[in-house]
Amino acid sequence: MKKRKNILITGASSGLGKGMALEFARQGCNLALCARRVENLEILKKELLEINPSIKVFLRSLDVTIPEEVFEVFRAFNQDFKDVGEKLDRVIVNAGMGKGASLGTGYHKQNMQTAVTNFCGAISQFEAALEIFRAQNDGHLVAISSMSAFRGYRGPINVYAATKAGLASLAEGARVDLLYKPIKVSTIFPGYIQSEMTDNVAKKPPFMIDLDKGSKLLVKAINKEKNKAYVPFWPWYLFKLMMPFASLKMLKKL
Fold it and tell me: If DSSP codes are grouped into helix, strand and coil, which group holds residue 232?
């Protein structure tokens, strides 16, 4: 399997995006990182170059809810790599949020922010990434979904889970569309990995692993370029098999 050396990660200023960037830097990959909080990216860049001074790190501010901005930033990163004699190998669609609450309880604005960021923003990222990959007839598109994508959830996870289900479907559709072409599309389903999002949850989720371990496992799964991967595999693959059989009463307790 070919080595993907030049990687674009959205939502890279914190959480899984930051963790993956650190791990890819250890592997000697050049990185194009974007997020709304560019000041965090500047701090991260220093960390990355301390890990591996030989890599290239490009930064740009990006709000994935603005389609024109997504295309502009992706094309600019693509040109950055061309300027140093490289090409964009992989795009990781990671940007997302988990704001919101039960439907009809006064949190429409927050629920819509989550929907637009996680799903509509992903469509723009897919479009911009695949425009580049189709032109060069090569590339690896990675969608960071969630183990919550397999069933509906109550409360603040309702809209979040729906967007992650939509993202998984979007990725599978792209995978079908690109069948027999030298462009790979992978969907990653993380379980509970420590991040800013999990830090804001009052009750610690079960089977949660720390960010460093989770990031290593995510990168390992991404590098294998399988159609789908569950991270960590145990116990989450078993969870995926069991979820279709869970009753509504069981889901209510989650």
Answer: coil
